[in-house]
Specification:
The protein is of the alpha+beta class and 971 residues long. The chain contains 32 helices and 31 strands. The chain has a 5-stranded mixed beta sheet with strand order 1-26-25-24-23, with no helix packed on it.
């Protein structure tokens, strides 16, 4: 389609900003040589070497980049780096500089982070760089291309790679990323378009894409997954991919600028003649017919229409930034093109009834799905009003799933629109949004149209993907043609309905069972459960045989994970509950897989086996059933058998073998003894005690207690019971004799041997205890004598060696009442306190810990009472507690020991060390004596005549009080 045939709309608003005068004043009379945009700036460069940065609020920041002129510039879109090419001196090689606009020096000038002199003296014409800052290319007027690789801000000394000379000036360049590590460079000249594979390290192979070129600023790269490199010629717009030439758009006119904004292509072209809506930017003396105007056209290539067009004068460049387009003139004036919102665009299209265009635009801009459905609805209403019912239905079909179907169905309920209604209902079923009412309505439409063939074709033959309510369809067909209903049910795997038709309409029970056998196991189980009562009522034998085959797969399958979906025998037990023999026969079909049976199934089988055993009069058959039940209990894992449930069943049916086995299996020997005694089976009870008495000794006690109260208990068994009780000390002799005396059936002749043995053992015990008592009394008298001697008699210290170092004692020395002596320095080194003997301290602490531990144990009243209840000889336990002083007050014991200074035996006396030259005064307390043991061992003797006493060296001189001396009157 030609460009002139495209529909035209006005979807942009143009604004001439008043601040553009400030920009033009800042630029002044300088000529703008290059422009760029990105990262929140509009960038203009002039021939004075200045760079002007324009913010969103039209604030202009200017800095000098070169001494002469700025030739080219490009602002990276997602980075603060600005790349410029300019001259510092005329007729010299141009210099490439990289500026960081976010880093400033003291004069607020951006910092130049890289400055590289270009390798050629020819004039550069084009400049491009990638947003990742890894690739940059400079094109020259002689057709050479300098390719820079590496980080623009770091690889300052890297040399560029010169690509193949094209022989003509480079008019346009753009980098294209195909994959993560593969880049291509599109290059255009005046007569050709080619691409270079710049990913290769050694060489950059070139591919010529077309022999058609373009002028400066007439090429652009369209971003996106299906991006193209576009060039503008007077006759059309040509597109190229990395492999070949792409589509072509016929757009006439002399193009001077080509730009891409969002999804739109912006074309700036020259026109001669009187403009219709020219915007005069500068005064001129030429006639209006001779004015050369410039038109700006914004194309929506995807939807094939022009969304905006206008004419202006002296347009220098078109810059996209901040979501808008900015038109810069050669005088430095800015005009802004603002795109209208989508709703405003759609309103314009709705007013013109251009719903098809509105749909395309909404889809291209990813409009909300619900709002898009509303456009389809309005479009359908428009076509319905015009009488185009087939077109309206086509639009209504697009609203299925969002728009309520009743909205459409009401419009076509008239009989003259039944074809359109049928089409819509057919599509509604195909999308899976139909319900039972819609299915019924569709079938009624087929009936009114007399299209039974179409109905059969709809439900049986064609349209496999159509989703409709099959149950309703079967119900409709069942009334008119059961054959079609059966075919439909079989096709859509409605096995339950298929079986229902066979059973209720045709009464073919055997055929129904044969059909169920062909189904999968899961489907067979579901179907047979639903109609099991009907099958059992009409064909019971065939049904039981089928159930045996069906349930056998539960145990024969090798895949254990499928067992949950297989038929379990317990699921069909309820059908055979009235006939125990039949149920036992059914379950015995699976007796080879007892280890796989569930607990409920096993209990049910045992219960009905007991019912058959109870009702059986033949003794041989009863024995067979008994062995079978016991074998099952012995062979089944304890996890799958509920022995307590079986015990209840066996007790209710009085089945003794199972009761005995379960009690023995669970080691409930006491209950087993009581069970034997309840049956008056005394031989079985005593035999149980013989087998398990070593595990549970109280069985003999239980049997003894029963013998004391049971008048029928055999007396000859009592001797063995009493011997076991005596041998294992299960009961005290006093309790045993008391119980025997209270019994009315036991006489002394039955227990003569037991009493003789008991009294002999008691006499030996009394003799032994008497010897122990005499010994303890003798030891006690000895200890009391020693304690009295320590309290009232003098103690002579005769130790000649130190108990710590075992060397000869020398003054000063320390003596204890326990007859241990130490050097004073040894005592200070080894003692833990000044009051305790180092040798006796560990033993004393151990004794005190024992006393404290016993004091703590005595607080455990509950533990004592528990032991007392379980003890067979309570008197011995209480005696043991008395012997351990557990009934005494610990604090009183400690106080008594502290008063007597007796911590352990022997008793340690608190020492008071004295300097070695100090002699003991005549009336010093005899508790401790520091002396020379070689001269005198009596601590109470007077000092020798040959020793001079120095009273100044006595440490107790000032503290001595004569009135407190207990021996003062003895002198």
């Amino acid at each position: 389609m030609s460009f002139l045939e495209w529909r035209k709309f006005n979807f942009f608003d143009i604004i001439h900003d008043a601040d553009s005068k400030k920009i033009s004043q800042t630029i002044g009379s300088s000529k703008i040589t290059s422009t760029s945009s990105g990262h929140g700036h509009l960038v203009t460069c002039d021939d004075d070497g200045l760079v002007h940065l324009i913010t969103r609020t039209f604030q202009v920041t200017t800095f000098r980049a070169y001494q002469s002129a700025v030739l080219l510039s490009t602002q990276l879109q997602f980075s603060s780096f600005l790349v410029t090419i300019g001259e510092d001196e005329p007729d010299t090689n141009t210099i490439l500089k990289v500026w960081d606009l976010e880093r400033r020096d003291r004069q607020s000038t951006p910092i130049c982070i890289r400055s590289t002199k270009l390798p050629k003296s020819e004039k550069p014409t084009t400049l491009c760089a990638t947003d990742n800052r890894l690739l940059m290319a400079v094109g020259f007027i002689d057709g050479c291309i300098a390719l820079f690789k590496g980080d623009l801000s770091r690889d300052r000394n890297s040399k560029p790679k010169m690509l193949k000379e094209l022989g003509q000036g480079i008019t346009g360049m753009a980098f294209k990323c195909v994959s993560k590590d593969q880049w291509y460079l599109f290059v255009s000249t005046a007569t050709s378009v080619q691409q270079f594979n710049v990913t290769s390290k050694d060489s950059c192979p070139m591919t010529v894409l077309d022999a058609v070129g373009c002028n400066f600023k007439c090429s652009v790269l369209v971003n996106g997954p299906d991006s193209h490199f576009m060039i503008a010629k007077e006759d059309a717009i040509y597109c190229y991919t990395v492999d070949s030439r792409g589509p072509c758009y016929v757009v006439g006119g002399q193009k001077i600028i080509l730009q891409w904004f969002r999804n739109y292509l912006i074309i700036v072209s020259k026109e001669r003649g009187k403009p219709l809506n020219a915007i005069t930017v500068s005064t001129t003396t030429k006639h209006s017919d001779e004015i050369e105007s410039i038109s700006i056209t914004v194309l929506d290539i995807q939807n094939k229409f022009i969304i905006y067009t206008t004419t202006m004068q002296d347009i220098l460049s078109v810059l996209p930034e901040w979501g808008s387009l900015y038109i810069l003139t050669t005088k430095g004036c800015l005009s802004q093109l603002i795109e209208k919102d989508l709703q405003s665009k759609l309103t314009v299209l709705f007013k013109k009834n251009l719903y098809d265009v509105a749909v395309r635009m909404a889809k291209s801009q990813q409009y909300d799905s619900q709002a898009l459905i509303d456009i389809f609805r309005q479009y359908g209403d428009h076509l319905y009003t015009k009488g185009d019912h087939s077109g309206a239905v086509e639009q209504y079909i697009k609203t299925i799933g969002k728009l309520e179907p009743s909205y459409v169905i009401k419009k076509f309920l008239d009989s003259q629109y039944i074809d359109s209604l049928t089409t819509y209902l057919h599509a509604l079923h195909k999308s899976g949004n139909a319900n039972k009412d819609h299915t019924t309505l569709l079938f009624n439409c087929y009936s009114k149209l007399n299209s039974l063939d179409k109905l059969q074709e709809f439900i049986v033959i064609k349209d496999e993907n159509i989703d409709f309510d099959v149950d309703v369809a079967i119900k409709v067909c069942r009334q008119s043609s059961p054959e079609n209903a059966l075919a439909l049910a079989k096709k859509h795997n409605r096995h339950s309905l298929y079986i229902k038709i066979l059973l209720e309409d045709r009464h073919e029970y055997t055929s129904a069972l044969e059909y169920i056998e062909k189904l999968s196991i899961e489907q067979s189980v579901q179907t047979i459960k639903q109609y099991s009562n009907i099958f059992m009522k009409n064909v019971p034998k065939d049904t039981v045989s089928f159930l045996k085959k069906l349930c056998s797969t539960c145990y024969t399958t090798s895949n254990v994970d499928l067992s949950g979906n297989l038929a379990q025998p317990e699921e069909f037990i309820y059908l055979l509950l009235d006939d125990s023999e039949c149920l036992v026969e059914f379950l015995e079909h699976f007796d080879n897989y007892l280890d796989k049976w569930s607990t409920s199934l096993l209990n049910t089988y045992i219960e009905h086996c007991l019912i058959v055993w109870k009702n059986e009069n033949n003794q041989d058959k009863c024995s067979t059933i008994e062995k079978k039940i016991v074998n099952i209990l012995q062979s089944v894992d304890i996890k799958t058998c509920d022995h307590y449930q079986v015990l209840i069943l066996a007790t209710s049916f009085e089945f003794k073998p199972a009761i005995v086995y379960i009690f023995e299996r669970n080691k409930q020997y006491s209950k087993l003894i009581r069970y034997y005694l309840s049956l008056y089976d005394y031989n079985g009870a005593i035999e149980c005690c013989r087998r398990y008495g070593h595990e549970e000794s109280k069985l003999w006690v239980l049997l003894f207690n029963t013998a004391m109260v049971d008048d029928m208990f055999p007396p000859f068994m009592l001797e063995e019971i009493l011997n076991e009780i005596e041998r294992k000390s299960l009961l005290s002799s006093h309790f045993t004799i008391t119980s025997l005396a209270k019994s009315k059936t036991i006489n002394i002749g039955h227990v003569r041997a037991y009493l003789t043995s008991l009294f002999g053992a008691e006499k030996k015990t009394l003799d032994k205890d008497k010897e122990m008592v005499d010994k303890y009394q003798k030891d006690t008298e000895t200890l009391r004598h020693n304690i009295e001697k320590l309290k009232n008699c003098a103690v002579v210290f005769q130790g000649l060696r130190c108990s710590a170092c075992n060397n000869q004692l020398e003054l000063p020395s320390v003596h204890f009442m326990c007859q241990h002596s130490y050097h004073q320095h040894c005592f200070q080194a080894f003692s833990e306190s000044d009051d305790d003997c180092p040798v006796c301290t560990p033993n004393n602490k151990q004794i005190m810990d024992i006393i404290r531990t016993q004091g703590q144990i005595k607080d455990y009243n509950e533990a004592f009472h528990n032991q007392l209840e379980r003890a067979t000889d309570s008197f011995s336990l209480i005696s043991e507690y008395f012997g351990r002083c557990l009934f005494d007050d610990l604090s009183s014991v400690e106080n008594q020991l502290a008063k007597s200074k007796l911590v352990s035996s022997p008793v340690a006396l608190t020492p008071i060390p004295v300097a070695p030259v100090v002699q003991t005064p005549p009336r010093l307390s005899p508790v401790l004596s520091v002396q020379n043991l070689q001269q005198n061992t009596n601590p109470f003797d007077e000092d020798g005549d040959d020793m001079e006493y120095d009273d100044n060296k006595n440490p107790f001189k000032d503290e001595y009080d004569e009135c407190k001396n207990p021996f003062a009157d003895d002198s």
